[in-house]
Amino acid sequence: MFDEAVTARSRAELGIPAGPDETFDLGDDDTIASVREAHSAACQASRRAVAAMTLDDVVRGNRRGPLPLRWVYMHMLRELAQHCGHADILREQIRYGVPSA
User: Fold this and answer.
1) Distance of alpha carbon 2 from its chain centroid, rounded?
2) N or C, which end of the chain is more exposed by having fewer CB within 10 Å?
């Protein structure tokens, strides 16, 4: 997670589940609007966290150890691209129907 890597705060401090798989679980009170709002708040917090940093600054919260901010950005872009690919698959399944096994 970007905020975890940049600020070195724990997942518990950030108010998110301990494991990444649980972050996909939705609660009864989750709506499209609430998820969008949470995403927007996370993006704003991330921008504030790196506002005074350069790409060569080293962040210390990643489980791999100290890394330049540039590496964290590249990792986030790779993750985004991968998940966009997943969204393409889901969109096609919705559009054309899921083939039967």
Assistant:
1) 6
2) C
